[in-house]
What does this fold into?
Amino acid sequence: MQSLAICNTPFQIFNIINALINQVEGLSNTDTDILIDMTFDSAKNTGVRIEELGLCRKVFYVKKKDDFSTISKLQSLIDIIKDEMHEDMFDFSDVSVINNHYDNIWVGDQNVFGLLAFRSNPHAKVFWYDDGTSSYSTTPESYGHKNLYNFFGKIFKLGCYRYRSRTVYLNNTEVVQYNGYDLRQLPKFKDNNAAVKYLNSIFDYKESQSKISDFKVVILTQVHPASAGYKGMDVQSLFLAQDMDFSKILIRKHPRDTMIYSGCEIDDGKNMWEMECLNSIRDDHILISCCSTAQLTPKIVGGKEPYIFFLHRFLLDDESAIKKGLENMIENLTALYSDKSKILIPNSVEEFNALYFKIFALI
It folds into this structure.
């Protein structure tokens, strides 16, 4: 079976390599190509390591041309709906990748490259795969689109609705909040998964660069727009404003977090978070954030059960778009925990302080 896997993010590559090493749906190093969208800094180096390890037949690369940004979002959407996206709008390392014959196409999101490859392979079977929180909260075709697009897409099979795919491969099928899809489990990492050693190499995981094991508490920072609905204090400011012992606290910065922190230890993310979850996170860690998807990763990906503090109830306004729907996700995550008391959702600063010092004393 000839397969093409399209990856836009390191996490998508992480999941495809797991599927490939374990030969999910017939994926193999002799019959599988990978197309990497060069939207992240390490894209080329990551692809080179994949080829050096002989994990797939060929790695292709693509990026938008410089003048692509001049095309309006509305025009881009119209082109996608009408199936008029053209390969000459992008720089491919080898344009044959979207014209080759494939039996299976793997897509983590609604990227246009999947549509281009599908146009050349209209009878190919399309598999959706884990792209993070969005893959659990919303159906693959509808995420990020307005109701009008989804309405007409479903009826007339427009855009990614052309795939007619109902199969979704996920790291944990039990957290999903929608119905009507064939949800399938990606190979779990706690079962001596052979993919781990390859992932460590591909993402250049270095134990010497990991700071996670040296700290009990990890604050996961987030970067949200003003519309996120913060009441005036985020989780970093909450800690900095109080008399906390930072000798046991590590701040893991979001890749887009430009804030300068002083008086505390910083983890600038040289090791990919998913790799830290597999290699370094322990059940006695405390992960604190407003509502970071990174807090879900240890359990969903690594089968670990650290203490988790979600602070959205008192950090965000009731009308926050981020806050809506979050409670269901947390409820589903809590259901997976063997010790459900390790998921903590304080309603106030005072309640947080009381719970934090209680838990900190136990570990």
Observations:
- The first helix runs from residue 10 to 21.
- The first strand starts at residue 3 and ends at 7.
- The two ends are 50 Å apart (CA to CA).
